[in-house]
TrEMBL record:
One of its GO terms (molecular function) is S-adenosylmethionine-dependent methyltransferase activity. This is tRNA N(3)-methylcytidine methyltransferase. CDD domains: AdoMet_MTases. It comes from Sipha flava (yellow sugarcane aphid). It is an enzyme of class 2 (transferase). Its EC number is 2.1.1.-. PANTHER family: METHYLTRANSFERASE-RELATED, TRNA N(3)-METHYLCYTIDINE METHYLTRANSFERASE METTL6.
C-alpha cells in the first residue's frame, strides 16, 4: 500500500534474475515464520476484506495514492493508433490511473471497478468524471459478477495495477479466468504489482504472515508478493501467452523524509490466445 510516487528515483533496473537475499533479510523472513496469522484470524480478514478497504477509503479519500503519470512510459501498449480502445481497470480506486490517461488524450472508453463503494463514489465525484467515457461500478472480481457487467470478448485491454496483491492467492486464478473471458482474442493484460522480497515484504514483523508471500497489514488490508515464475504459470495456465514479464527494481530516495529504500515490483504484459487450453 506504500505510495512513493513523489520520491526521486536514483535508478531503475529491469531484470528476470531472482533476488539475492542478504543474511539479515533471510533472518527477517525466518523470524516472520515464528508467529503466523491463525486460520481463524485469516478467515475473519477474508470475510471482512471489503469492509477494510471501505474504511481505508473513508479515512484517506483521494489523498493517499498519487496519480500514475508513469503508465504510458511503462506500458507503451497504451499508445499507438487513434482507434478507440475499450479498457477495464480492475481495482480502480479513486481514478489515479484513468484520469491521467484521459488528460494525456488517450482515446479510450473505460470500465472501472473496485471492491470499495467509497472508492467508486470518490472516483465519480472527480470534476473530470464523464459517464460517456467512464463506466464505474462496485464489483467483487473473484466472482462471476464482473462478466455480468461487461460483454465477453469485448475488451482491448485490462489493467491490474497493485490490485491482485490485495486478493488471497487462492482466488488469483478466478480473477485471471474472468479477465480472460472479457478480453478479445489478442487482447492484453497490463500488470504491475509488488515483487517478491520487496522492501515492504521484508519489513513485516512476526504475526502478520498469512501464508507464503502473503501478509496482513495493521488496517486489515493484505498484500501478496509475486515472483515472475508464479505469475507466468498463473497466466499460461489460464490461456495467456507472455509478451513480457520482469522485475522492475528501484532505489528511491527522499532526503527530507530520510527515506532511502530499495523497491522491487513485477511488471508484465500477457496476451489472450485465440483459444483457451
Amino acid at each position: 500500500m506504500d505510495d512513493y510516487s513523489n520520491i526521486n528515483n536514483r535508478y531503475q533496473e529491469e531484470t528476470i534474475n531472482p533476488v539475492k537475499l542478504s543474511e539479515q533479510d533471510q533472518a527477517t523472513l525466518d523470524k516472520q515464520n515464528s508467529r503466523i496469522v491463525s486460520l481463524f484470524k485469516a478467515q475473519e480478514i477474508e470475510k471482512n476484506s471489503k469492509k477494510h478497504w471501505d474504511i481505508f477509503y473513508k479515512n484517506n479519500g483521494n489523498r493517499f495514492f498519487k496519480d500514475r503519470h508513469w503508465t504510458t512510459r511503462e506500458f507503451s501498449e497504451l499508445l499507438g493508433d487513434d482507434q478507440q480502445k475499450k479498457i477495464l481497470e480492475i481495482g480502480c480506486g479513486v481514478g489515479n490511473l484513468i484520469y491521467p490517461l484521459l488528460a494525456e488524450g488517450l482515446n479510450a472508453m473505460f470500465y472501472a471497478c473496485d471492491f470499495s463503494p467509497r472508492a467508486i463514489e470518490c472516483l465519480k465525484s472527480n470534476p473530470s468524471y464523464n459517464p460517456l467515457v467512464i463506466n464505474a461500478f462496485t464489483c467483487d472480481i473473484i466472482t462471476d459478477e464482473l462478466i455480468t457487467k461487461i460483454p465477453e470478448n469485448s475488451l482491448d485491454m485490462v489493467t491490474a495495477i497493485f490490485v491482485l496483491s490485495a486478493i488471497h492467492p487462492d482466488n488469483h486464478q478466478l480473477v485471471v479466468s474472468n479477465i480472460y473471458k472479457l478480453l478479445k482474442c489478442g487482447g492484453l493484460l497490463l500488470f504491475r504489482d509488488y515483487g517478491i522480497y520487496d522492501m515492504a515484504q521484508l519489513r513485516f514483523k512476526p504475526g502478520h504472515k498469512i501464508s507464503d508471500n502473503f501478509y496482513m497489514r495493521q488496517d486489515g488490508t493484505r498484500s501478496y508478493f509475486f515472483s515472475i515464475e508464479y505469475f507466468q504459470s498463473l497466466m499460461e495456465n489460464n490461456g495467456f501467452t507472455k509478451c513480457s514479464n520482469k522485475y522492475v527494481c528501484k532505489r528511491t530516495v527522499n532526503v527530507k523524509e530520510e527515506v532511502d529504500v530499495p523497491r522491487r515490483f513485477i511488471q508484465a504484459t500477457f496476451s489472450k490466445k485465440p483459444t483457451k487450453f
